[in-house]
Write a structure and sequence with these properties.
Layout lengths: L1 H18 L5 H9 L18 H14 L1 H20 L2 H8 L5 E4 L15 E4 L3 E11 L7 E7 L6 E7 L5 E2 L15 E11 L3 E2 L5 H37 L6 H26 L3 H28 L4 H16 L7 H15 L1
Parallel strand pairs: 1-4
Antiparallel strand pairs: 2-3, 3-7, 4-5, 5-8, 6-7
Helix pairs in contact: 1-2, 1-3, 3-4, 3-6, 4-6, 6-7, 6-8, 6-9, 7-8, 8-9, 8-10
Length: about 350
């Protein structure tokens, strides 16, 4: 079913999705009907019961055709990983049925070197909670049905996670936000000004959000993000190989560059496999950093090779889109600077 959706809906619309900055609603609807949106929900609720390993494979395959659509899946699967553990059963059943798209609004990048810090605040009323704050670069903003939102804990100590409905009063999404790449992913800032949610919208215990982010959110978000980058690289390598193969006698330099981009992609695939097998904050963040930087390097080289090989106009446009999509991941929190600062601080503590 996934291959049919990719070949019949996602792939044919990829150029339009990017060029017109159009959210891939037909693709999302098709993925819902095919059972992909609910594939990681427990089978007892009607889902597919799939693991992170299988979600990574799905996102990688989609990213080969359209990185914007894959990024939507990355955010959705990450949010669902938390909702499946702490969310309402009725909501999980809706996700399993493909009727609900979730999005991850957890990362702020407000504290240097701390990937899960947040500046959003929550204050309790009699039966409701008021949430104030801004989340930059939320995927499927204005398109998702709900958001996984992080705030400081109600007592100010620690972090809490909340289920915020897209229909919640006080939730504001700008009409449009300029983006270099991933232009169909609907990635924008979302503001709670303030948002009011029921007290039972709390996911897990108050103040337990950091533990959930470290044990669930970061491993899923980083692995799936690497799958997006890897899918982009897969597509770039395949297209570059085709361009070089069309040359009667390719120069040795082109062959060497083709080998370099293939090996870079393969190295990320190995890191991804290891990170999924043994998930953790350190391995996840290291994977994210390497995957993004490798994708930028691979797509840059692929674009240059295509130009040297006199690739067709269509192939050149696709190469340029892949390059922009690879670079766009730099802006999505936790950003590369935050990730590398965190890894560096960890190295010092471990010495």
């Amino acid at each position: 079913m996934l291959s049919k959706v990719i070949g019949g809906v996602i792939g044919p619309r990829a150029r339009e999705t990017d060029g017109r900055r159009r959210f891939p609603r037909p693709a999302v609807d098709a993925l819902g009907e095919a059972g992909v949106l609910g594939s990681t929900v427990d089978r007892s609720l009607g889902g597919g019961g799939r693991s992170l390993t299988e979600a990574v494979s799905t996102v990688r395959q989609v990213a080969r055709a359209c990185a914007s659509t894959a990024t939507v899946l990355q955010s959705h699967f990450t949010a669902v990983a938390v909702l499946a553990r702490f969310g309402p059963r009725r909501l999980c059943a809706d996700i399993a049925a493909g009727r609900h798209l979730a999005s991850c609004a957890v990362f702020d990048d407000t504290v240097p070197g701390d990937p899960h810090a947040t500046s959003s605040r929550a204050s309790a009323g009699s039966a409701v909670v008021r949430i104030d704050g801004n989340k930059p670069w939320v995927t499927a903003a204005g398109e998702a049905d709900s958001y996984l939102w992080s705030t400081r804990a109600l007592d100010g100590s620690g972090t809490s996670l909340w289920l915020v409905s897209a229909a919640a009063p006080g939730l504001h999404v700008p009409a449009e936000q300029e983006a270099l790449g991933l232009r169909g992913s609907g990635t924008r800032s979302v503001t709670a000004d303030p948002v009011t949610v029921p007290a039972d919208a709390l996911l897990g215990a108050n103040g337990d959000g950091e533990r959930i982010v470290q044990s669930v959110v970061l491993p899923w978000f980083c692995a799936l993000g690497a799958a997006v980058s890897l899918g982009i690289m897969d597509s770039a390598v395949a297209a570059t190989k085709e361009s070089v193969a069309a040359i009667r006698a390719p120069r040795p330099g082109l062959l060497a560059e083709l080998a370099r981009i293939r090996l870079r992609a393969d190295s990320v695939a190995v890191l991804l496999r290891d990170a999924v097998a043994d998930p953790g904050v350190a391995s996840g963040l290291a994977l994210r950093a390497m995957a993004i930087e490798s994708a930028v390097r691979v797509t840059d080289l692929a674009m240059k090779i295509s130009q040297a090989a006199s690739a067709s106009t269509e192939a050149s446009i696709a190469a340029e889109r892949r390059f922009r999509d690879a670079r766009a991941s730099y802006a999505i929190p936790p950003t590369q600077d935050t990730v590398f600062e965190h890894i560096g601080a960890t190295l010092l503590r471990n010495d």
